[in-house]
Automatic annotation (TrEMBL):
It comes from Coniochaeta ligniaria NRRL 30616. This is C4-dicarboxylate transporter/malic acid transport protein. Its main location: membrane. Residues 34-47 have a biased composition (Acidic residues). Keywords: Membrane, Transmembrane, Transmembrane helix.
Length: 421
């Protein structure tokens, strides 16, 4: 097999020719192709960008089954929650949402089994994936998938069951998720700071991912607080607000890096521009969480014990803050959409799912604001946004199936572990 490798995958298109590569990459790639010529091989047979690349057996392709596959389940889970929260209902809609919820559970189990198979078949790949400067950033998508499973389970299963044991199980799942996501965020960023030297001009939206699960703690709190007794709901909301603040603050620092990269180096390569939609998520999910946690406060809350009910004031403040954050999400959505329209990607990447999950949060935040302000036009717009998200999900899913079939992904040089191939 050719030792030709893709250089600087964050910047170069998959279809880059030798002339388009920087001198260092150009010299190395040419040397590898010369070696192939000496061995009597056609270098294009192993070029991951060539249509003549040789087919690989499925077992060998499993080596490139990466953590980024969890973007499928976090998007599917986000869609199931979005279906449940639709402002307009019709017969069968809840059944469709439940079917998507069950499908997400099956997909989550299948992807987990696939990763276990990869690590078992190819010893050492677990450590490589956890330390890889690109693939490791997708490890938190596992936690994001779990967050969507918790919230969708609350919507489709727990909300219709007042069993105290079920409520306690939900509480424990929330606290466990909060602890694990916080540990992962601290540990992963500390490791990146100590082991990798990432350049500003290579800043990518995936750098936000390690803090994203912490942020979703607030979203989970906003969903489960309504069904919890007051004595349990208030601590959950306080913890959720704390984690939401931490997540948004760190995401703000990542935004500063992203803006610096956009000003100094321009937009990412066309193949990675759908990832810009990831920037829509943090403010959108924070807006959703603030409105939800405000609604989850006990009606008789008197924080200062002065006889004045504080719940109404806090709910009003949460809506005002959510409007500000929604506007930031809208701006990032416009930037990402324009970037993709100007240069659509040629090849499928699992990063395409960034156009689904963050935009699901954006749409959910729109629905929450429409309900909080009792504004029918906003709910009408949110319904249209929901339809767009559903169509986008089907579009990306169809391209995913096609990409697996024609070996556009799960192939050396075409996945998030590209530097290891």
């Amino acid at each position: 097999m050719s030792s030709a490798r893709q250089f600087d995958d964050q910047q170069l298109p998959r279809s880059a020719t030798v002339a388009e590569l920087p001198p260092r990459a150009n010299n190395h790639l040419q040397q590898c192709r010369d070696d192939d010529d000496e061995q009597g091989q056609d270098p294009e047979d192993d070029d991951p960008h060539s249509h003549r690349r040789r087919p690989l057996p499925f077992r060998q392709r499993m080596k490139h089954f990466t953590w980024a596959w969890y973007t499928v389940t976090m998007s599917t889970g986000g869609l199931s929650v979005l279906i449940f929260n639709q402002p307009y209902n019709f017969p069968g809609l809840r059944g469709i949402g439940f079917a998507v919820y069950i499908t997400n559970i099956v997909l989550f189990a299948a992807i987990t089994a696939g990763l276990v198979a990869r690590f078992a078949l190819f010893p050492g790949t677990l450590k490589q994936s956890a330390t890889h400067p690109r693939e490791s950033f997708f490890i938190p998508t596992l936690l994001l998938s779990l967050a969507t499973l918790i919230t969708s389970t609350e919507r489709y299963v727990v909300s219709s069951d007042n069993d105290p044991k079920v409520m306690v199980a939900v509480q424990w799942s929330f606290w466990a998720y909060m602890v694990v996501s916080t540990i992962v965020a601290v540990a992963q960023y500390a490791f990146v700071f100590s082991r990798h030297r990432l350049r500003l001009e290579h800043t990518m939206p995936t750098w936000i991912l390690p803090i994203f699960p912490v942020m979703l703690t607030g979203t989970i709190a906003s969903v489960i607080a309504d069904t919890q007794p007051d004595i349990a709901a208030v601590p959950i909301i306080v913890a959720g607000l704390t984690c939401q603040g931490l997540g948004l603050s760190v995401a703000g620092m990542m935004y500063a890096l992203m803006a610096g990269r956009l000003f100094s180096a321009g937009l990412p390569d066309r193949e990675h521009r759908p990832g810009l939609f990831m920037c829509v998520g943090p403010p959108a999910f924070t807006a959703l969480a603030l409105v939800g946690m405000g609604n989850g406060l006990p009606d008789g809350l008197d924080a200062n014990f002065d006889g004045v009910t504080d719940a109404l004031m806090l709910r009003t403040m949460s809506v005002v803050a959510a409007v500000f954050l929604w506007a930031l999400s809208f701006w990032w959505f416009g930037v990402a959409a324009m970037a993709v329209v100007m240069a659509p990607p040629r090849y499928f990447h699992l990063g395409w799912w960034a156009s689904v999950f963050p935009n699901s949060g954006f749409t959910l935040a729109t629905i929450a604001l429409g309900r909080a302000m009792r504004c029918q036009p906003i709910l009408d717009v949110a319904t249209g946004m929901s339809a767009v998200v559903a169509v986008t999900y089907v579009f990306v899913l169809c391209h995913l199936i096609r990409a697996v079939w024609i070996q556009d992904i799960m192939y050396p040089g075409r996945d998030e572990d590209v530097e290891d191939t």
